[in-house]
Amino acid sequence: MDAEPEGHILIVDDQQDNLLILADLLSGTYTVRAAADGEQALAYLDGGRRPDMVLLDVVMPGLDGFEVCQRIKADPALSDIPVLFLTSLDSAADEQYGLSLGAEDFISKPYSPPVVLARVNSHLKLAQARRLLSDRNENLERLVADRTFELLAQADELVRREQEVVASQEAIITALCALAEARDNETGSHILRTQNYVRALAERLRDHPRFRHELNDESIDLMFRSAPLHDIGKVAVPDAVLHKAGKHTPQEWEIMKLHVAHGHEAIAPAEAKMAERGGAFLRYAREIIHGHHEKWDGSGYPQGLAGDAIPISARLMAVADVYDALISKRVYKEAFPHEQAIDMILAERGRHFDPDVVDAVRDMAETFRAIANQYRDDAD
Question: What is the predicted pLDDT for the residue at 72?
């Protein structure tokens, strides 16, 4: 198991017993500093001290936690410090307000030590990841491109043989998938299902006049292997939003939608570097990541592309992802039966989805059912 990340944590609470409880729990792993109220906390920060995290009581005399959080997030030098509220408040309105101020999460009183340690550990790791993602010149390359180049370096001596080049490509995609799976709670079965839907659709359409210029053995194989990366940008989405047990608020949904841009920003520099070395296999990963939420009628995101302006790989991924979401149980919905999911896909012909892709889904509905059954979540 990985060691707990070291970090500097500022605890702000006007109740001495709460400070002692948290300090005793965290001081064995982290450097802990305490402030008895909001004024002391801001003075500590104004003094040039920069913690890696602030655990902040909401209800305090003088400046309450909401006001302190707002001031922290308004300061460019401090705004990326994760703030976790400590509170006995349990209303959804309070939680929504706190998140709107920029806080990353809430920890409820009375404290559960395992929950506190898990939340602190998770958000410290996430804050480290966000810092990596925010610096394109150094950090994005360290997170994705450098990992890619390390794997390529190991395969350089074998590049004369085609099968070993393919093996290195698969290793790179596996490494990138590990980044996504480390943050996202979707199952590995979802990845297996969606990549197999994409391959089946591509095989079905490879002789179609509109698609045969693009679809061949090599491109279909690359789309299949790139499909698992479609949501890699979720590594940059805050835990409180990504793992929320229920439907997202409009503001949270806007944050979720940014995963497409985050993923594109991560993969595009790596693709460019790979192209310099004579390889273009990350092209389909970039297309799928950036385009799988676009819609045929132009109402999707992030670019509002329409029709054939949407890459073929992204059009196939869009259908695969939506179908699998429909037949899968989520915290906010039950799974739809296969037949109903297919009907819902057909209803979006020419709106959400490419009409010819939808026609292919209609004609191969039983293939989709077979893939879903083969890789179902409860399969051995």
Answer: 92
